[in-house]
Amino acid sequence: MGNGVKEGSARLREDAEAILSAPVSSKRDHRQVLSSLLAGALAGALAKTAVAPLDRTKIIFQVSSKRFSAKEAFRLLYFTYLNEGFFSLWRGNSATMVRVVPYAAIQFSAHEEYKRILGHYYGFRGEALPPWPRLLAGALAGTTAASLTYPLDLVRARMAVTPKEMYSNIFHVFIRISREEGLKTLYHGFMPTVLGVIPYAGLSFFTYETLKSLHREYSGRLQPYPLERMIFGACAGLIGQSASYPLDVVRRRMQTAGVTGHQHGSILSTLRSIVREEGAVRGLYKGLSMNWLKGPIAVGISFTTFDLTHILLRRLQS
């Protein structure tokens, strides 16, 4: 009898502790999500601003039939600076920030959540995920972010390839597109974006997390130095962007068809058009060398900034 009463009171005490700790756990989860969002937003903003002139130059070549070379790219940068001024090299960067800040915030935060969910599902809570779930977490994070912010990416591409007189600001782009081309145009090029994001985000996060895991295993240190994070991020960007680059070219052509004289078409028709007019390698990989310059820099800055900011915010919270 006495034992039964003791067991019953022990269970009641455990239940009460679980109920009392639930709001604390929920509050902790909300803080973690918020810190991931803030760290991701800062990471995206710094990374994209650092490489904005190179990014704009790459887009201009992607949507035109001009042959790309490093010499022509830097000539374009130089003449843009001479004719339109230094800050014109960052034209469209305001639209980029409007897109990149929520995109990076959602992507990094979603990646942390997908890692937690998949880790719980596969029984790896608090440990590094095995390869396939690691790849899946990155792909799902990129797809989630791209789906929620795609119209902003289209607006940014339009602003990058048009003169200042055509679109005065971000809102002007939205208004003109909706009036002249219809609201559905805001999602034109969405499918190649998602098809490109899956290998890009999947391989980028997979490579970065794998390199960190290998570093932890062989160096004996729990955290890499900032420079090591930059190198891991650069490798991740190089692999991810190279794998998805042809779809990036197709996406840009579809996004800017209304202002560059190209006809709106499907993924396959745009792909065939590029190959027919410019050749498979020259057309589909146009500007890739520029991407090899800017991509590793941007992704290295992005991953490093996110990790360091996230660590700092968690320390402040604790």
TrEMBL record:
Catalyzed reactions: dADP(in) + ADP(out) = dADP(out) + ADP(in); AMP(in) + ADP(out) = AMP(out) + ADP(in); 3'-dephospho-CoA(in) + ADP(out) = 3'-dephospho-CoA(out) + ADP(in); adenosine 3',5'-bisphosphate(in) + ADP(out) = adenosine 3',5'-bisphosphate(out) + ADP(in)
Renumbered ranges of Solcar repeats: 31-117, 129-214, 224-312
Entry GO CC: mitochondrial inner membrane
GO molecular function, one term: coenzyme A transmembrane transporter activity
Alphabetically ordered keywords of this record: Membrane, Mitochondrion, Mitochondrion inner membrane, Repeat, Transmembrane, Transmembrane helix, Transport
Location of the protein in the cell: Mitochondrion inner membrane
Signal peptide (residue range): none
Record has Acetylation as a keyword: no
Function comment: Mitochondrial carrier mediating the transport of coenzyme A (CoA) in mitochondria in exchange for intramitochondrial (deoxy)adenine nucleotides and adenosine 3',5'-diphosphate.
Family according to the record: Belongs to the mitochondrial carrier (TC 2.A.29) family.
Name this polypeptide is given: Mitochondrial coenzyme A transporter SLC25A42
Protein's organism: Jaculus jaculus
